[in-house]
Every structure is written in structure tokens, then in C-alpha cells.
Amino acid sequence: MERAFLTRSPTAAELALLAKFLGTYRDGTGGNRETDGSSRADSRQIERCFAELLHGRTTESKSFYDFVVESNESGGIAVRGASIKSKQMARLRDYGKPKSILRSYLELSNASAKDWALCRDYALSEADFAAHRYPDKFGEVILTRQRQEREASEHAYIAGQANKTFVPKDCVFISVLYSPAAKGERSWLVSTFPVQLPKPTTWIFAGKALVGKDADGAHLYEWYALSGSQFKYYPKLSSRLNGTELFAGPKPTVETLRAKAARLFGD
């Protein structure tokens, strides 16, 4: 089964439809208010746009996957999932320019209790992290935690349904980046990356974070285990599986809540 973003880049028609879906939330119904009185889709609404585009369904929960797509294949039901991360990027409009090396930004988790429970299984303590001891072991822990969270989510989704199976190679992170507003408009970029996280070249401590560096010596991961346990992932956009070029969405007439209520229910 081929499906935009999960297995390939979108067609021009699919991208135009996604832009329209995102654009519907500019009429005042988006969860994020813009300075010009319009609005922008929030993270949950972005998830619904992709699910609608791909004929899937959102999980509407804190599950690892934000939406899943099911299809009948080989006598069973194949399941593909996506975890969507959205973020404003100041230099996004530099994408595609010569010598521009941009990285995506995905905050993957902030589950302090679960992270430290696994750390204790590895005989690692908060004192070890604060003293910058055992960076490789801490690195192994945080990547293991991400895998465990994903696998637990998959098992919970198909529990009791022997005919359903996840297709790991087609499950992805979807990075949705958008630029700061300029004259009321934003640029958007969508990229996908495998949910199987790559191992960094090295793990080191830097300030409050455990940092995983890639072959370029740049930050691939940052884990702030003692500060909310935020775990961040910075893959190069040039390494993405597929995605879009920069695009903008249409802007409908902004409708106030009072006007919408009158339209739907009368004065």
C-alpha cells in the first residue's frame, strides 16, 4: 500500500488538499491565535488534517502514534502509524538555499517517571547524571525507552485482534515546521523520519543535557533528564524519508465566535 508521507512524498493534488485542510483553521477556529485576529491549527488539529488526508483516524490520546491508517493486505489488516511533531522554526525560509543545513526539531517525550524507572533498572541514579557519569549507559537507556514506548503502544492498539499487524518500515515521525508570520503569512514544511531512532556517533554531557552527536559533530539528541526529562531529536532535513517543499495555506474570511453561533443556531 502506498500512502502520502507514510511511504512516499505527496502528489501536488494531495499537498494542495493538505494546505486547504490546514487553511480551514485560519478562520478563527484554530487553537492558536494569530496577531492579525486569524488563527492557526494547534497540534491536535494538525493531527486531524493528516488523518483526514490519509483516510486514517486519530488516536486522540497520549499514545505514541497520533494517527493510524489501516488497510486490508495479505488476508489481514496492516496498520501504519505516525507521530506528528510541530514547531516554529525561525530560519525555515532558508530551506532549499545553497549551503543551508537545516535540522528538524522533534520533542519526542517528557516522561520523567518512566525514564528514571528504567534508569534504576540499569543501576543509574540522578546523582550519576548530575555528576556527568556513564553517558553511554544513559544514552542506551533513553533510546531503549523510546523503543519500549512505541512497542507498548503498538501492542495495546492491536490487543485481542490477531488479524492486525503494524508495518514498522512504514511507521514514521512527521515533522511539521512553520516559519514566523511575515505580513500575516507563514511558510510550512513537512518531512518524515523513521520511528526507529538511529544511534549517535557518541554520547557526551553538555551542561544540563546528555547529548548524542552525529558524524558531523552536531547535536542529534538532547536529553534533559533532571529538567522535566525532555528528550529532543534533531535530524537533518536532508536525511528525511520524504516530504514537501515550502508551501503556504489559503486564508478564509475570519469568523468570530458570535457570528458563527448566529449562523449555526440563529440570533
Question: Which helices and strands appear, and what pairs or packs with what?
Answer:
Blueprint: H1 12-24, E1 32-33, E2 39-40, H2 43-53, E3 57-58, E4 67-73, E5 76-88, E6 106-109, H3 112-121, H4 126-130, H5 135-158, E7 164-166, E8 172-178, E9 188-194, E10 202-206, E11 209-213, E12 219-224, E13 230-233, E14 242-243, H6 257-265
Parallel strand pairs: 5-7, 5-8
Antiparallel strand pairs: 1-2, 3-4, 4-5, 6-13, 8-9, 9-14, 10-11, 11-12, 12-13
Task: Please explain how this structure is put together.
This protein has 6 helices and 14 strands. α3 packs across α5 (about 135-160). The radius of gyration is 20 Å and the shape is globular. The strands form 3 sheets. Strands 3, 4, 5, 7, 8, 9 and 14 form a 7-stranded mixed β-sheet that branches. β4 and β5 form a beta hairpin. The protein is of the alpha+beta class and about 270 residues long.
